[in-house]
Write a structure and sequence with these properties.
about 325 residues; alpha+beta; Sulfite Oxidase, Chain A, domain 2; 12 strands; binds ligand MTE
Length: about 325
C-alpha cells in the first residue's frame, strides 16, 4: 500500500498475551465458516495464544512518531468511554459483561443499489480480517495505541453499491436500555449516531473493527462491530453498530445534538483548535506520566489531509 512505512517488528513491544497472528487468523476463519454464532464469543482462549509472534504497528506519516508501543490489553479493556453503559471509565468493563453480542446483524441501506442485512458471521467470512495498530486520541485529552483487527469500511460500502446521490454515511449503534443502563439517561438522544462524508468513509484508514489483540472484540470496546477512525477524535469511532445508511445530507451525530458548540461533524484531531473548555495541543498517553504533543490528524496527515483541501478546519471542527 502506498504511503505506508514498514516498521521492523523488533521496534515494537507487543502485549505479552498477543502471540500468534497467523494462527489466530486461521482460528477466526475456521470459526466463522464452521461454527456460526461461536465466532464472536469474546471469552475463552483463542487458537495460537502462547507462541510469541510480533506484529508491526501501522505507521504514522513520514516525519511523525516512527514507532509506538501498544497499550496493554488491561488498559484498553478497563478504561473505556461507552456512555450506553456508564459515563464512568471503569464501569463499562463490568456493566457490559452480560451484554448479548450474538446473534447480531448490521443493516446497510439508504442510497444504495444493493441494500442488505449482514449477519456478523457473514462479515467475518466475506472480508479478510486485518491487523492494524492505530493511535486513538480522545477529545478529552488522553490517548492509547490499540492493535485492532478488522476490515476496511470501504469494502462493505462497495458491496452495497452507493448510488450517485449518496454523499454521507450515517452509523447507528444498538439501543437496548434493558441491557445498557446508561441509555436510561435523558441527557442523550439515544441511539448513538455518527457520520462521515462518503469520501472519508472510503479512505483506507477507516476500519470496521471486529477484534483487538488478536481476539474477538470485548463488549466494552464495542463488540461485535465498531469503527476505528484514527485521524479523528475517538467519539467518531462508534461502537455497537447495527445500522449503516448512505444519505445525501450531513447526519447529526449524538454529540452534535447534545453540544453543537463543542462537537462538530468533522472532529479531526487538531492541536491548533482548542475545545471550548480545554486545549487540544497535548495529550496523556494512558500509562505515561508526561504529556505528549498532539499531532495534526493524530499523525495521519499524509493519508487524510487531501480530503480537507479548501475546507476551513477552524470553522469545520
Ligand atoms: N460508541 C458508542 N456507541 N458509545 C460511546 O459512548 N464513546 C466514544 C467512542 N465510541 C462511545 C462510542 C468515545 S468518546 C471514545 S474515546 C471511544 O469510543 C473509546 O473507545 P474505547 O473505549 O474502545 O477506547
Amino acid at each position: 500500500m502506498s504511503g505506508w512505512r514498514d516498521v521492523d517488528p523488533a521496534e515494537i513491544t507487543p502485549e505479552h498475551v498477543y502471540r500468534n497472528r497467523r494462527a489466530f487468523m486461521r482460528g477466526i476463519g475456521a470459526l466463522a465458516v464452521g461454527a456460526g454464532g461461536a465466532a464472536l464469543s469474546a471469552c475463552g482462549p483463542m487458537p495460537g495464544d502462547g507462541t510469541g509472534e510480533m506484529s508491526p504497528v501501522w505507521p504514522a506519516a513520514e516525519g511523525d512518531v516512527p514507532q509506538e508501543t501498544p497499550n496493554t490489553l488491561e488498559q484498553i479493556t478497563t478504561y473505556n468511554n461507552y456512555y450506553e453503559f456508564s459515563t464512568d471509565k471503569e464501569a463499562p468493563a463490568r456493566l457490559a459483561r452480560g451484554f448479548k453480542t450474538e446473534p447480531w446483524t448490521v443493516t446497510v441501506g439508504g442510497m444504495v443499489s444493493k441494500p442488505a442485512t449482514f449477519a456478523m458471521e457473514e462479515l467475518l467470512q466475506r472480508f479478510p480480517q486485518e491487523e492494524r495498530t492505530y493511535r486513538l486520541r480522545c477529545v478529552e485529552g488522553w490517548s492509547m495505541v490499540i492493535p485492532w483487527l478488522g476490515f476496511p469500511l470501504r469494502q462493505l460500502l462497495e458491496q452495497v453499491e452507493p448510488t450517485s446521490q449518496a454523499k454521507f454515511v450515517r452509523f447507528e449503534a444498538v439501543k437496548r436500555p434493558e441491557e445498557m443502563p446508561g441509555q436510561k439517561s435523558p441527557f442523550y438522544a439515544w441511539p448513538y449516531v455518527e457520520g462521515l462524508r462518503l469520501d472519508e468513509a472510503m479512505n483506507d484508514l477507516a476500519l470496521l473493527v471486529t477484534g483487538l489483540y488478536g481476539k474477538p472484540l470485548p463488549a466494552q470496546n464495542g463488540a461485535p462491530l465498531r469503527l476505528a477512525l484514527p485521524w479523528k477524535y475517538g467519539f467518531k469511532s462508534i461502537k455497537g453498530i447495527v445500522k449503516i445508511d448512505l444519505v445525501d445530507k450531513q447526519p447529526t451525530s449524538l454529540w452534535m445534538a447534545a453540544a453543537p458548540n463543542e462537537y462538530g461533524f468533522y472532529a479531526n484531531v487538531n492541536p491548533d483548535v482548542p475545545h471550548p473548555r480545554w486545549s487540544q495541543s497535548t495529550e496523556r498517553r494512558i500509562g505515561e506520566v508526561r504529556r505528549r504533543r498532539t499531532l495534526p490528524f493524530n499523525g495521519y496527515a499524509q493519508q487524510v489531509a487531501d480530503l480537507y483541501k479548501g475546507l476551513d478546519l477552524r470553522q469545520n471542527y
